[in-house]
Amino acid sequence: MATTLPASSYRDPAAFETERVGIWAREWLLFCPAADLDRPGDCVAADVAGYPIFVAVDPSGRLRGFHNVCPHRAGVLVWPGHGTVGNLVCRYHGWAFGWDGRLKSARDFGDDPGLCAADQALVPIHVETWRGLVFVHLGADPEPLATSIAPFAGACDAYDLESFVPVRRMVRHLACNWKTYADNYLEGYHVPLLHPSLARALDMSTYRVDMPDTSFCVHTANAADGSPSAGAWLFRYPNLAVNVYAAGMNIERIMPIGHDRTDVVYDYFAAPGADGEIGAMIEMSNVVLDEDQAICEAVQRNLDAGIYEAGRLSPKHEGALAWFQSRVLESRVLVT
Description:
Strand order of the largest sheet: 1-10-9-4-3-2-5
Radius of gyration: 21 Å
Distance between the termini: 26 Å
């Protein structure tokens, strides 16, 4: 019988630090939609599990990614968020860097014969795209994104993702560990109790979660009444969810902020000709998100209380949790 991760995994800063190294620095991560990085100078900066990074479009149109940390005194090159940059200059002391990350000039630094441009470079990260989404990898020598994402990509072949048009973005700030939110996403066991409107919209007897591969799982359910909630929900470890509906899709990216805080960014896209229907999908989605946020934060408070240690996982409903939590455990072996 499968059991959950111990409660300490959700509340211990040391466990989060292990995951930063074993998961978030070793996996291809969804970073943003490619529409945010459409023209030279476009830039997106964010923290991912405590790693401040940015991706920008250089003058030739190439995506460049770096840790957002100046080698001089750890200043920032780009303020967090979505904006534009003309060049890479530290906002603290004005050191300037080329698009290859090498130091070009140390503003008014003085005479220091030991200052070598090769030793004072920005730390690069790997950046690749897949079907209108930008991914980053913080490791030294990852396998190509196309190889890593191939099984998940095959499951998405049936959906014309590139035809969907971005219409809205919302960010949820959750007072919980990132795994608390992921655990909740990975099962439909809670739907009849926690999401009454969703349960009415779906034929829950058809709800299933399949794991075609060790990197992702797929939720499916038939509509009870032609509801905009019917569709397919695909989760790729560790931080991407693609939720496809008749009227469009919602791309989720899980962004850990600390051991007890998580941002979930929701990008909504409308299917061609479905502008009038996308509102109903977004409205239903946010009702469900309100309910999920409330329970995830309540569960986190209980995990923090010191009463609960671990529980049993349902073989009927929580197989995807067992898969996900086994991946987390495997990542710890890599670190130790």
